[in-house]
Amino acid sequence: FHYQIHYTMSERKLEDFNNSKGVIKMENFKEIQAKHYAEHEASRAKYENKVGIYAITCNDNIVYVGKSTNLFNRFVAHEMNAMEPTERDYHTKKYTELREAVMGGATISYIVLEYCSKEQLAARESFYIMKYWPALNRQTPQGNKPVESIEKYWK
């Protein structure tokens, strides 16, 4: 199961992003969200309302593991938070790392590790976090850890 961001920043888009510091205003949120949903309409039926555990990869290396009761919405939310963040998300280490990786030419993808029931989400997410110990997961079953850089995967 594979969902890949086909997000390429053109030079103009990158310039706009750098000039605005990438922060969007909350009043523009719904408009930008609609744009992201439209860009990924082909994947909507496959992942919308599906419950499961997913990973974010950077050049095929698992850098984050998460859980969701709607995988499509979660994938789009991660993409928006990384590439067109609100002020709240702009300085979040996870999204800063993903944004810098994309700007550096990395391929960021989402993969479904496992579909499961809502009741199994927490246990299955813990299993995969312990298995992969991803750089961008801060909370682990053994407590909090610092978010690590993923630069080694794309530089």
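That was protein one. Protein two is written in the same sequence-then-structure order:
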Amino acid sequence: RAMWRIGLLRNARGLHVEAALSLVVARLVYVVPFKWLTQLLGTVAPSPLLAALRDDRERLQALRVSRATTAVADFFPWESSCLVRAVAACVMLRRRGLPGVLHCGVRLDAHAPLTAHAWVTCADMAIVGTETAPNYAPIAAFSASTQRRANGGPQ
């Protein structure tokens, strides 16, 4: 199922190529030290301030990142985990100067093994992985130090 044969890249080609590259690079989360990953993702905060999007253009950009990340990840021949998708989406949001936050959570169930999940939000928008996020207790959130504050101003 090559992407170019089904026309995925024909529409919004640049965004889908960026999503594909971001997803491939994000797979490095499995081999790089966690310290390097935190430098990419930003500072750890238990509950980061939610910065507001400035206008509808930024909201549309965030929505496009969400759709491109999900669409391209579904066409790869390998499974892109929630962490890979979240890192890729976070990197794409940051490239656009949007306030993405990568959340990590765990699910504790006495009848099942410990499971973890990662998801991304941008202001009040769900970007990737948020469908199952309510089932997980948040343990950390990563937000870039270059993000805007909650009032929309620079940090």
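DSSP finds five helices and five strands in the chain. Keep this in mind for the problem set.
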